Amino acid sequence: MKRYTILALVFFYTSLFAQHPIAYLTKADVGVVKTGLTREGLLKASFRDVKQSVDKWIGKDIDVPIPKDPAGGYTHEQHKANYILMFNSSLMYQLSGDTKYALLVKKLFLKYAALNPTLQNHPQATSSSPGRIFWQALNDANWLVYTGLAFDCIHDYLTPAERQLIADGAFKPEVDFFTINLKDWFNLIHNHAVWACAGVGIVGIATDNAHYLDMALHGTALDDKTGFLANIDGLFSPDGYYTEGPYYVRYAILPFYLFANALNNQQPTLKVFQRRNNVLQKALVNGLQQTNLNGGFYSYNDALKEKSFISNEIVEALSIAWKVYGADSSLLPVAKQQNRVTLSKGGADVALALAMSKNIAAFYPYKPISFTDGAKGNEGGVSILRTGGSEQLTSLIFKYSAHGLSHGHYDKLNIILYDGGNEILQDYGAARFIGIEQKYGGRYLPESKNYAAQTIAHNTVVVDETSHYNGKEDLSQKYHPEKLFSNSSNGKVQVISAIDDKAYGDVTLHRTVWMLQLPDASKPLTVDFFRLLSSKQHQYDLPFQYLGTVINTSFKYQAFTNSQTTLGAKSGYQFLWKEASAKASNALTQFTFLNNKTYYTISSYTDDSTNLFFTRLGANDPNFNLRRDPAYVIRKKGANQTFVNVVEIHGSYDTNNEVSVNAYSKVENITILRDDEAYLIAQISINKKLLVVAQSNKNVAANTKHTVKINGTDAHWVGPYTVIYDHQILQ
Amino acid sequence: MKRYTILALVFFYTSLFAQHPIAYLTKADVGVVKTGLTREGLLKASFRDVKQSVDKWIGKDIDVPIPKDPAGGYTHEQHKANYILMFNSSLMYQLSGDTKYALLVKKLFLKYAALNPTLQNHPQATSSSPGRIFWQALNDANWLVYTGLAFDCIHDYLTPAERQLIADGAFKPEVDFFTINLKDWFNLIHNHAVWACAGVGIVGIATDNAHYLDMALHGTALDDKTGFLANIDGLFSPDGYYTEGPYYVRYAILPFYLFANALNNQQPTLKVFQRRNNVLQKALVNGLQQTNLNGGFYSYNDALKEKSFISNEIVEALSIAWKVYGADSSLLPVAKQQNRVTLSKGGADVALALAMSKNIAAFYPYKPISFTDGAKGNEGGVSILRTGGSEQLTSLIFKYSAHGLSHGHYDKLNIILYDGGNEILQDYGAARFIGIEQKYGGRYLPESKNYAAQTIAHNTVVVDETSHYNGKEDLSQKYHPEKLFSNSSNGKVQVISAIDDKAYGDVTLHRTVWMLQLPDASKPLTVDFFRLLSSKQHQYDLPFQYLGTVINTSFKYQAFTNSQTTLGAKSGYQFLWKEASAKASNALTQFTFLNNKTYYTISSYTDDSTNLFFTRLGANDPNFNLRRDPAYVIRKKGANQTFVNVVEIHGSYDTNNEVSVNAYSKVENITILRDDEAYLIAQISINKKLLVVAQSNKNVAANTKHTVKINGTDAHWVGPYTVIYDHQILQ
Which residues form the signal peptide (chains A, B) (predicted)? Predict the structure, then answer.
């Protein structure tokens, strides 16, 4: 009986694993790329770059040092350079047939086969998932992915004995480490686990090891509660929204796509790219929708602003998507800006499409869009209201998603505003200098959790100087706001409304933002209702993380000119210098700033209990880890309180001609006509006309008819809101 | 006798003034432009833009309001728009022959002819040279220049009676105001006077008024002590360095060129463009040499950083220079970036050259260069040390010029560093939001004199927290530093040394900076000797206005994390928050920062009496008029003191690949081998080699032979300095 089993397994192995290369590209793909290389163009240029980066190492003795340094240090960077070199050289071998490239890879593999069995936890390991070659296991997983792909490409060049030596020496210690020592980490639903599964799975395919592949796909228990497929099912919402946010979908999409591509070559019947109605395609497309005009990923949750869609991960994903989902011309503006393609069938096809296409748009086709969060799509979401095309695009992001795992922030009902490619109301992102050893080994800085993740670092209300969920991840991870209503189908009135009654014990947060395109304005107007409901007295701070230069204010303030202290002592407040403060009056309060060449005015409904602050980051930051960014904070006190704010984009400043146009706000007054359990109705005088914005607070059904007295006259509308401008319903 | 004189004058008038147009372009020029417009290209595109801007006003009643508002306000912007429109419409008339354009100009002129005689000083006038149409006379001069050119273009369209009406009503009140009421201002040697003379002179040519032209050329006393020619002679050094600095040469070059061009058409025998060996050509070319890679004018003296050579003034000057000095292909990169040309013969020729030229360089051909200051070239100067080509350009500016009139700063022996188009050690420039009414009417802000002009805002030594010349312009205007020696002919060793014994009563400032290209480095190394000589005890602060993110320091510092106070109380110190301070030790002191994607390290020779500060702008700035820029200040105390600093450009940070290369300084030690009346010799250990930099403090003759013991061995050299690297003289 046992003998039969072994025979069956052997048969299984040979039938499934006979062909190499198969992980990154197939023999047929190699042919397509070789044909593509006969043409001048982006494929050939990309090939030349890779070849040049590899050729300078041919014949040299390449260092495989004993791991010692943190990120940014020598041994870290050397091992990172090695796996990229091994991958690239293995591709050169496939595309040129020249064995010098395979020899380079083999020699490095033999060094790793000697080194890896000797390794214990990295001396710089500080995380709960320590690495061996690197300070954290995540980097070891990166190593496995690339060296696995490299092994597959030189598989047929190696003798069976060499293959065995490398599989046992270079790969097995890492795979065992992941699947035994770090089993809990390997079995997470999290981007780290995606990398780990991709690494183990690709090595499985490359070394014809079905057990590795099984663990990678189905988790170490082989029960599909964890593993790669469970991560595809668990990390994305049905729309492809990745719960950690756009910066991390950029990162995670690479192992998702690389491993899925290998699987698709090797087990096409698994239809991994079709899983959950093409969720991996949606992940890419919707990741791109979450970028700014310059390609930078929106910086909510932990994010570094300098990352854009020209990064390697998106180059790879785009090429693979082109191959498996078919040509998609909307991706060409992205590919053009990337200005390189991968050396694969998809890359060859993208390069050809770029060469054949005339008039490629300057920008990705951004549109108003909403995503649900959560594997089932029932954990809140993110909406992006948008108007204007090309460089005139204005995007207002409203975030009512779930926490977003370990990289989430305490930012329920946050808004972020981009205009014409500039950040106007920013999300700080994360505090980290990735790859810079001197800055805390390139790791997330303490200020990232202590400031950047805190509520005050966002554009949403902080109650009693305490972050949402008191800054507790385990608590925040359990809940999410609920969307009340939205409309992005009407270009003139886009709206999104959501409520959260869990972020604070006894306070309910209810926010609605409208992006209104008034007929006599060139840019959209943002109207922002923020209701706070509580039976107890609280302090409510609504910060606006504006970026720009203070131009003027409608109020007098006290500036702290000779000495400065902090805005508070905790929840991120300790990082904010109080530059100025003011007491508002029973009147319209306005603040105008200049960003790049456009004016922005925040007009606020205030009363004489409202306080205002100008703050500046940098307090309690002895290591200069935070940018010195400003904020404008509106503080109200009370039990129930309502903020009504209008954000206006207006005018222009031409520095070369020294001309300023429409530098003054056109908002003349804001009054609240009604604010009770049933309705919130505000009236805004703008440009000598009246704008009335009304919402139903309770009954948000789409078909409910409402009749409400507004300014003494019965107004009628259907659905959760209405917007009336100059006595006409705006639509 | 009297009758003969009158006859002679009449003859003079008719012979000189018969032809119109002649001021901006001649009839022959019009023919060239018309021919140029038959081709597609930049001329035609520029024509289309101008035509479009004019056409929308044809047939409309254009407002000529009663002057009321400051810069940025409605009446200011309307009058500004009017003179540009009149000029452009008059060109359209010449180029199309369509009288609707001339009619538009005439109608506006008739409104001004009614308005101008009624005007008294502008209600917002605050300066000693008040305007009438505008808040300051300078803007009235701009108005005269453009409307004078416009009048000339429609001269032949107007009836003699209309000409008289406009000359008497629109022009005469302004000309009389300038030459009688503001005579002292009109007769200055200053950019305002250049504009005023250009305005009166162009109106003289346009209205056939020889007296106007005479006053413009020779001053109201007609004695050539003032007037346009005296300004050409007085404001430029023989090399064409403009004493107010690059930002203002950009501004002044327009009236210089426009009036000179009109004169050249009307009195070619005056050879105004050849005056002082083509000093106006040198002014343009050397103005361009004083720009950054992005075209931005260097920001020393009062300057707004956003001004670049794409501004209208340089577009006009470039076109005229091309016509009068001949084709110059080195100007094409500038013209290409300007992306428009003037509607003139020069503009047509530049457009044609752009169309015919292949491979126009991406950047202006920057080179190491020195300028003298002062009309006779004997009032110090500015040197720019440079290495690297194209985007690798590094420029180190050393300023030892005279004060620079009313826009000068207290910045003797200041240095400024640009690298790869980025400002690394900045000059703040001026504090002003030109054209923004809310920001102090668009005028220079008080912080401009109080902070930006003060010594602490620069990269040079402040003694006892008091600016050079105690911040007194009249005093500073009298003196200038003396250059001791320089060399920019040796690419590996560029050097400039100067001394100043007037900025402080009893302290002599002596600074030498070297830009060294070491054989094993890709970027130049700056070595900076700053000697302070005094018989009394003083405090010496050397600030580095670095731009970038703090990466690390070699020293421990105390950060003021919970409360902040200012660095001092006066001389600009009151605007600086003290973010951190440290006591140095008897050792090398290093500070590394990251700017864009490059690391920079300042390595300093310090002892245990040296103090260090990190500062941040923003204190005592209640109106948010200053940028929140950082500085690093090295403080020494004593009678004689010497600063030796090394500024290193090293490594790179690749945010997309998250890789940091050479992020650490290679400087290991700095010692002073000798520091006395005769010599200053420093030894820098770098990259495990020795760099010895030696200067003669007293005998700086080029042919003097020196023999000095260095590290126990006699070193021999000729001239004021030597640089020895790895035991070889660097050359």
Answer: 1-18
- DSSP line for B616-675: EE-TT-TT--S---EEEEEEEEESSEEEEEEEEEE-EEETTTTEEES-S--EEEEEEEEE
At position B537, the amino acid (one-letter code) is Q
Domain at A369-663, CATH from 3.90.1150.200, 2.60.20.10, 2.70.98.70, 1.10.510.10:
2.70.98.70
B629 in contact with A at a CB cutoff of 8 Å? Answer: no
- Euclidean distance between CA atoms B501 and B507, whole angstroms: 6
A307 contact B CB<8A: yes
pLDDT at A4 over 60: no
Q: A85, A142, A624: which to substitute to probe chain B, counting the most B Cβ within 10 Å? A: A624
DSSP, residue by residue, A556-625: --EE--SEEEBS-SSTTGGGEEEEEEEE--SSEEEEEEEETTEEEEEEEE--TT-EEEEEEE-TT-TT--
Ranges of chain B whose pLDDT falls below 70? 1-18
Kindly indicate whether the domain formed by A2-235 is annotated with CATH number 3.40.50.2300: no
- What is the residue extent of each domain of chain B? 2-235, 369-729
ipTM over 0.85: yes
Strands B652-654 and B659-661: antiparallel
Stretch 171-230 of chain B: residues touching chain A, C-beta under 8 Å: none
Element (DSSP H or E) covering residue A332: helix A332-338
Nearest chain A residue (CA) to B665? A438
Can you read off the two tokens belonging to residue B240? 């064409």
Extract the tokens encoding B95. Answer: 């180029």
A489 at B interface, C-beta within 8 A: no
Q: What is the pLDDT of residue A17?
A: 54
The torsion angles phi and psi of B714, rounded to 5 degrees, stand at -70, 125
Burial A2-23 (b: 16+ CB within 10 A, else e): eeeeeeeeeeeeeeebeebbbb
Q: Is the peptide bond before B70 cis (omega within 30 degrees of 0)?
A: no
- Give the integer Cα–Cα distance in Å for A602 and A579: 18
| pLDDT at site A587 | 82
What is the DSSP annotation of A459-492?
SS-EETTB-GGGG-HHHHTT---EEEEEE-SSTT
Q: Tens digits of per-residue pLDDT, B605-662?
A: 999 889 999 999 999 999 999 999 999 999 999 999 999 999 999 999 988 888 889 9
DSSP secondary structure, B490-547, as one string = STTEEEEEEEESSSSSSEEEEEEEEEE--TT-SS-EEEEEEEEEESS-EEEEEEE-B-
Record the tokens describing residue B98, joined without a space.
């369509």
Q: Which residues 364-423 of A have a C-beta within 8 angstroms of B?
A: none
Q: Angle between the B275-289 and B246-266 helix axes, to the nearest 10 degrees?
A: 140
Joined tokens for residue A243 = 């719960």
Task: Tell me which fold the domain B369-729 belongs to.
Answer: Beta-galactosidase; Chain A, domain 5 (2.70.98)
pLDDT at residue number A166: 98
User: Any CB–CB contact under 8 A between A655 and chain B?
Assistant: yes
Per-residue tokens: A44? 């050939």
Q: Are B613 and B580 in contact (CB under 8 A)?
A: yes
* H/E element, B730: none
B 73-92 → A contacts, CB under 8 A: 77, 80
- Number of residues that make up chain B: 731
Taking an 8 Å cut-off on Cβ atoms, the answer to whether A660 and B577 are in contact is no
Helices (H), B157-209: 160-166, 172-176, 183-186, 191-206
Contact at 8 Å (CB) between B500 and B412? yes
Identify the three-state secondary structure at position B706.
strand
Specify the range with the lowest mean pLDDT, choosing from A8-17, A721-730, B485-494.
Answer: A8-17
Contacts of B243 (CB under 8 A, 6+ apart): B235, B236, B237, B373, B374, B401, B402, B404, B405
Chains A, B: CB contacts within 8 A come to: 143
